[in-house]
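ok trying again, last paste got cut off:
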Amino acid sequence: MKLKITLIVFCLCVCTCQKDNKATLEYTYATDTSILDCGTTNTKLFEEALLSFENDIVAFYKPFNGQVGNAYKQFITATTNRRATYNDIISDHSKAVFEALKTDKSLWKEGQQGKAYNYSHPIFSCISEHITDEKLGTTYRALLSTNSMSPRMLEYEIQRRVFSLSTDKFFATHVALDLFYGKLHEVDFTKPKADLSGEIIDRKNNPKTEKDPHAGHNH
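nice, full thing came through this time. structure:
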């Protein structure tokens, strides 16, 4: 009898914790008007993930006009060169979004270097069906069907279509998941943020920090 009571209490605690985990996220950007028409998954969470990510990169890359298209270009360039500083870019809200994403156990699996995406999750098939570029959509679906999807496989396509990310919200969701939230498992959020955006402003506005193109020449 005591064992049954203990099991019941344990199950209630687990259920309560799971509900609490899902309820902790306060939606700031996602509205009742869906931008990701999937239907088979928690679309609102992924919309919040995308929009919070976009807000972060726009805020971080303010020296580049604060426009989402320019922010995407700077972010993709940084990730391509393996120089993206996630701890400096991410906001507290995106950290909360990341924690909410982690509660979706079907979204993740154990990879060779820790947590990796389970590309069988419905969000990725939804993305594949709605990508604006038809050729890219075909490639995306082929990668999913052959279990070949990885950040490396789409790196070139993302670079080529970087300016389409501001309008193609489905492909942008893939970028937000793969190149941002998927990289956060190993990030040490206890480290202080570096004011890297300020350094960019200084280099842009302070000519003394730039190398003199005439240095070393006699006139």
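cool. Residues 42-186 form one domain. The radius of gyration is 21 Å.
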